[in-house]
Amino acid sequence: MRIAVLGAGAIGAYVGAALHRAGVEVHLIARGAHLAAMREHGVRVLSPRGDFTARPHATADPAEVGEVDYVFLGLKAYSYASSGDLLAPLMGPDTAVIAAQNGIPWWYFHGMTGHPLEGQRIEAVDPGGSVTAVLPMERAIGCVVYCSTEIEEPGVIRHLEGTRFSIGEPDRSISPRCVALSEAMIAGGLKCPVEKDVREDIWIKLMGNVAFNPLSALTRATMVEICDHSDSRDLVAQMMAETLAVARAAGCDPQISIDKRIDGARRVGHHKTSMLQDLEAGKRLETDAIIAAVVEIAELARVPAPTLRHVYAAIDLLSRTSLVS
Q1: What confidence tens digit (pLDDT) does each residue in 60-110 have?
Q2: Which of the pair, 324 or 17, is modelled with greater confidence?
Q3: Domain of 292: which CATH number?
Q4: Exactly one of 76, 191, 196, 205 is catalytic; which is it?
Q5: Nearest to 168 by CA among 136, 145, 198
Q6: 162 and 14 co-located in one domain
Q7: Could you list the residue range(s) of the whole structural domain that residue 99 is in?
């Protein structure tokens, strides 16, 4: 098994190190000081589950790697359409792509036989089909990440919590390629269930992201602060309720209560969401997959979602007026 990690940042380098530890041939594709450190010293993982160091091949040039069995995408979803030159050298006839992204993926309605929106393109995450042109639907393996990591310093990954990477085929099959990947991930010390319908995991995670990410960026508040403020907690609950209605119209019925989902987020404590961190770092905000796509699906399915629309209008304006890189 040959796996390339394209965008070997905090999550990608952690996954790559775990897979390498399991004996998989791993190639990390990164840049800058982080790449230089991984080349010289390997990937050092600091974790409450035990520290370890792995030394997979690391490069800035995918052409050095060649065709692989799997590409693990550690890029932000908004970078997919422009990643064609990086992906091309890695792609063989049967190369699968594990899209470890937040929010709604570009392949969402692919393989949903019998659903009224089967095959529908979601413009927010696949504008003009630009992502599909780079990443054909048949290559996609869905992946929902329940893992928190950060780059403590170049080449050093701090694993904070969670080891679960739920994966699944868009067509709901239990495929040999998913089973093989799951076995390799598990051998590396990770949890990697193959889900019959990974969309349920997508929506359960998205229930939190769709509310806490934009609200934290708009208010500069941590998750516990949002939960402990009665009016903002009510706003979160309303956004989650609308998101559940959209999920059901999109062919999925997540079995989780809103109060349980909010209480789980509160236990995370004074944590800054990824969107707030990106805002403070002057980076582009990941609004398209996290909230714009949900609003678009609501429109396609004719589901009222006024709170989501209003919050999206505010975060979209903030995204457009903020300094980005």
Answers
A1: 999 999 999 999 999 999 999 999 999 999 999 999 999 999 999 999 999
A2: 17
A3: 1.10.1040.10
A4: 205
A5: 198
A6: yes
A7: 2-196
